Every structure is written in structure tokens, then in C-alpha cells.
Amino acid sequence: MDLLDRLKDARKKGKPVFWDGAMGTQLIGRGLAGQAPELWNLERPDEIREIHRDYVLAGSDVIQTNTFGANRLKLKGAGLESRLYQINLSAVKLAKEAAGGKALVAGDIGPTGEMMEPMGSLTVEQTEAAYQEQASILAEAGVDLFNIETMFDLAEAQAAIRALKSAAPRIPVAAEMTFKKNRRGFFTMMGVSPEKAVRGMAEAGAEVVGANCSIGPKEMVELVRELRAHTVLPILAQANAGDPKLEHGKEVYGVSAKQFAEFARPTFDAGAEAIGACCGSSPEFIREMAARFER
Fold it and tell me: How many domains does the chain have?
């Protein structure tokens, strides 16, 4: 059963499709420091495979490849532009080995790290070319879907969606933007509202829309409710494990796996057909959430 079929069945079954949790947090816990996380696909593949496998064993129905920053523009800044193909190809291979047919593999796609016109110098054409190149490799390697995440700029999110649809029209696209709450409501760093975000992503061709990062699980319930008011598409929600605090030079997140899981059913009831976790999370977060729907 493919992603869209699983999402359609979520309400009938009374439980969401479970995404995985943080990759970066897990890598930092294993010693990542001062280098691109995607390089571990080539230099420490066993650890990447183990992280994926732990999420599958915890109950993730979808795992995301370690390719968040594996577009040409982002890799160039890390001096890894020449290894783009190998990094993306190996990422899918490792995820598929860990999935073992028990979970779908999502090609993970993050921001370019550069500002688009008119705020910056990056053109729409350059943006789409970078995403199309990455998507073509991920599609060749056999991903089941694409997952665009942590987007602040709607124009960049739309460029990514269009590029993915051009590179692999038959592969479903999930797209998530990142919001913070202020006295006026939820907005991205670029001032994009939830309503404008979901409508814009849908117009560009996304089959699944949602939000990840920046907010904790309690706020995510409220945000999902607002997203649901403006779209009929399936919604994906991946909150952080609370707000990070710096302790002894390290980021520490204040929400435990059990506390996080308390908001899983409210998030589902608010309208999210797919639920995962973001920064500060671990396989235990997925395990705890999944357990709430087995009771």
C-alpha cells in the first residue's frame, strides 16, 4: 500500500501514519560535530542504517533519508559538491536496507540555505535546478515519496515542489513549513500564514502538507487545527521536543518521550493523518506515540 492509500485509511483505522523522528539529534549524540551530517552516509554508513532501523522497530511507517542538506547549493558550502550523487544514492540505499519493506522511504529535502529573490540573489530557476537534480537522484535510487521540510519561504517551498514533480511526476510529495507563534497567530520567519502556506503548497502540486520544527507538541495541536481549516489534503505534523536550552554547551530539549506522546492523539484528532517528531526526539518518541494508539 503506497503513502496516499495509507493516509486515506488513517481515519478509518483510527490511528495516524507514523513518520520517524530527528536524524540530526541522533547523529550529534553519536559524535557528529563540525561536518555535514550527510557525509556520514559515506563515512559511517552503519550508524545511519542503525538509526533508520531503530525508528522502524519503534513503529515508524515512513523513514526519511539523511539528505536534508544534500542539494548542490548546500553541499557546495561544505565543500562536498562533487560528492552529491554518491551522498544521495547511498542515503536511499541505507534507508531501504533498514526499512526492509516494513516502512516507506521518503527522500528528505531541506532548504538550499540561500535567500531567493528579491530578498537574496538566488533565482527561481537556480532553485528549481538544484532541487530537480537532487530529486532525480533520489528517484533513481528508489524512494517511495519525497518529504520537503523546514521551509520558511513559500516561494522556495513551491519551487521545490515544482522541481520534484518535474523530476518524478509519479512520486508523492509531502511538504512542511516551519512556524512560530506570536500574538497575531502562527507565521513562518518570512511572514507566511498557515492558510497561505497550505494553499500555496497545494497549488504547486503537493499531495500532503504540514508543519515541522520550531514549536513543541502542545502548540502543534493548535497549528494542525488551523491547517485543517484551510485544506482537505492529508496533514503531516512533526513537532520539536519542546524549546531547546543550552546546558554545558549542548542543546537540551525539555519534553520527554512520554510527555510528547500525550499530544499524539490530540494532534490526530485535530486533523493530522501523519505524525512524527523533529529536533530533540528519538525512536522512543515514536514508540511512545504508537503505543497510545494501541490502547
Answer: 1
